[in-house]
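Entry 12.
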Amino acid sequence: MTIRPSAALLFVVALSSVAAALQVDFGAGELSLCKCQQYRLPLYVAGAQGEVTVTASSISGLDVAAFDTGSEAGLLFGVACNATPGGYFVSVTATDGFSTARQQGIVSVRDCNELGIDLVRTERSCDSVDFTFRASNNGIFPQEAYFATGLSTVFYEVSSRRFVLQPGASRTFTLSVFPPLPGANAKVVFEVAVQSPDAKVSLPLAITTPLCPPTASLSPRSDAVAEVVIPLSQGSYASSFNLPSVNLFPSGALSVSGLAGARIPATFAALVLLLLLAAAFLYFRAKFEDNAVDARKEKARRERAKRIAEALR
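Predicted 3D structure (tokens):
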């Protein structure tokens, strides 16, 4: 490229009647580019005593050429999409027919297709472990990313498998893992990755089972005592005793054995019996609901175990 002294907006061309050494500068020490990127950089020339010819060269993967449009002059860099990240040697030579100036530098090439993944939180239950992740695009190009893991699809569910991330954007998704034997003593090690055609980032994870600690089985006591508090006619209170037997007498009062023959009004005794019956009803209803929940969980566990067995065949 030939630069005429009259055409130099972005060039600093110093013409002087006093001979000065030709100088050229393109600031390569501060230049960092991305793969697939083009970039224009001003070129500065000083001390020219005539028309200046500029040539530029670099190694494979980084194209560089000098240009002069009359209103703008400089260097045009073009980074190949398959360029290997690292430092690229660049050489620029300028001559005005009297002297020659050369500058050499290193242009840094980065892989700007950068994805990130962070573990936000972990939630455990007796059947599964839920991992919440944040995937981010830290580069300068949009990324069509997708989730990947080495686990069989039988053992996990994921809220989002594919998503588009704009530069600087992030997206959260949840991975639910169902260990094959959640009650056994084992350790499941696996990897979670977010990747695109141009980039990949992964995170190692591990699950230790059993997910829930074993609980001791509870057996009902044979000498269980029903705790009841009844106000007595003398103003004192009975703290606790074995559930008494009740006999109805023709006198219209209830005699409760075990209370030293004390008589209690029939209305109050009937209220106590109703409270006892209501407490018993609520107790057995709660037990029934607990058994129903356990039955549903056991059914789900057997179905999942069946799917796992079929997948392993």
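Annotation: The longest strand covers residues 100-110. Residues 3-19, 216-262 have pLDDT under 50 and may be disordered.
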